[in-house]
Design a protein that fits this description.
Layout lengths: L5 E7 L15 E9 L1 H11 L1 H10 L1 H10 L2 H17 L1 H14 L3 H9 L1 H4 L16 E5 L4 E10 L6 E8 L3 H5 L5 E8 L8 E4 L3 E8 L11 H8 L5 H9 L8 E9 L5 E10 L6 E8 L4 E3 L14 H14 L7 H8 L18 E10 L4 E5 L10 E4 L10
Parallel strand pairs: 2-5
Antiparallel strand pairs: 1-2, 3-4, 3-12, 4-13, 5-6, 6-7, 7-8, 8-9, 9-10, 10-11, 13-14, 14-15
Helix pairs in contact: 1-5, 4-5, 9-10
Protein name: Peptidase C45 hydrolase domain-containing protein
InterPro entries: C45_proenzyme-like, Peptidase_C45, Peptidase_C45_hydrolase
Organism: Papilio machaon
């Protein structure tokens, strides 16, 4: 990974302005290289991607729903309580969001609402039939020679063409260091205006991870939103540090997700695992369910597979079950090409693994393949089995010998 103060590159064909309507699926992956404090990297992201962020905030229906909840007494109380807790737990990430807001010239509260997500979206309506009909799909294998992890990045249709990759060297201010911030080197795909981490990426301490949204029925307003926990996960230097971040003792996660993880160690060994994370309704911590994979195939979508959690009902669960069924139709993967085929599966038309149907509220906006032998992260906009990656990023783990 290269680190310069601020540099921005776009791979692919930029074409029409992203702020225009009906521009179709653009084959472009903007990548920005940054160095600075939390506020500074946030500001430079916001300044460089202002048009993308502004366009997303104008078009994203989910934000309108969040604002409606925010404008109720219970919604505003949940917002204020969550913000207060995050200023105490992760003040430097709040500053990072403030930097994005200032750089993009958009309201901070709108960006913070995006980070609260379903915690604010369901504050006055506990209806289990939330509007989701798809989500991310993951498959990975480990062999003596290699570990390959494939991921589809699925998100609301408005997110299509509204993302970028941050490659950042974060150098905390003395004040932020006193509050717990540490120096960071990472690369992560980011939704417009949102913190890195809640998608896919890696850090220079040997950690690679992807995220699946999970939907517990009962959420905990005021507790840590998952996007803050996955932002903190980018700092992890060891599996023990990662587990501590996910556990979030003293508060705990307010909603849910799972993370598919590869660790590379100094001796060249690698671990492959999935960790399901859920709110603990009886304690101030997260519930973690960790499974390592040696010979079995890692497969995960958007439903809890091991942890017993009361989940929402509706299309997101049906979609997850259907996509898992499609993934299991394939022979266990033994090569990168096998991973490409699985990620491109469209066997079940209503809920395909790679979703491009124009009327689908959830779209596959990109796919990523982490090839640990090649040390590359490939990002596709179209189906991986029939297209070339639009961006190919090298993965370096230059800080491995500095673990502590």
């Amino acid at each position: 990974m290269c680190f310069w103060n601020v540099s921005c590159y776009c791979f692919g064909q930029a074409g029409t302005s992203l702020s225009e309507k009906h521009i179709g699926r653009r084959r472009v992956v903007p990548v920005i290289y940054l160095q600075g404090s939390h506020y500074e990297v946030g500001y430079d992201v916001g300044r460089n991607f202002a048009s993308i962020i502004q366009s997303f905030l104008k078009t994203y229906q989910g934000l309108k729903d969040f604002e409606r909840e925010y404008n109720t007494p219970s919604g505003r109380a949940a917002y204020d309580n969550t913000l207060l807790n995050m200023k105490q737990r992760y003040p430097y990430y709040v500053k990072e969001i403030q930097g994005v807001a200032d750089g993009a010239k958009v309201p901070f509260y709108q960006l913070f609402l995006l980070h609260m997500d379903d915690i604010i979206g369901t504050i006055n309506d506990k209806n289990s039939n939330r509007i989701d009909d798809g989500g991310c799909s993951d498959i990975a294998f480990k062999s003596p020679e290699n570990v390959v992890l494939g991921h589809t990045e699925d998100a609301p249709m408005e997110t299509l063409n509204h993302f970028y990759i941050m490659s950042a060297h974060v150098i905390p201010t003395p004040e932020d260091r006193e509050l717990g911030a540490v120096e960071e080197r990472f690369a992560s795909l980011c939704y417009a205006g949102q913190l890195p981490g809640y998608t896919m990426g890696f850090n220079e301490y040997g950690l690679v991870f992807t995220i699946n949204t999970l939907r517990p029925l009962v959420l905990k307003p005021g507790n840590t939103p998952r996007m803050f926990i996955t932002r903190a996960l980018l700092t992890a230097r060891t599996p023990a540090e990662a587990e501590k971040i996910l556990l979030d003792e003293g508060l705990g996660i307010g909603n849910g997700f799972s993370t598919n993880v590869i660790w590379t160690f100094e001796n060249g060994e690698r671990d492959l695992m999935n960790i399901e994370v859920a709110p603990d309704l009886t304690a101030n911590k997260s519930i973690l369910n960790i499974q390592k994979y040696t010979n079995d195939t890692l497969m995960h979508c958007n439903a809890y597979l091991r942890e017993r959690v009361q989940e929402v009902t509706g299309d997101i669960i049906e979609s997850s079950v259907t996509r898992m069924k499609a993934i299991r139709r394939h022979a266990p993967p033994r090569s990168r090409h096998d991973i490409e085929r699985v990620l491109s599966d469209t066997t079940y038309k209503d809920f395909p693994v790679f979703q491009t149907r124009l009327d689908a509220p959830i779209q596959t906006i990109a796919a990523g393949i982490f090839d640990m032998s090649a040390k590359t992260w490939s990002i596709y906009i179209d189906k991986p089995d029939s297209s070339e990656p639009v961006a190919l990023l090298p993965m370096t783990f230059s800080q491995l010998n500095q673990n502590h």
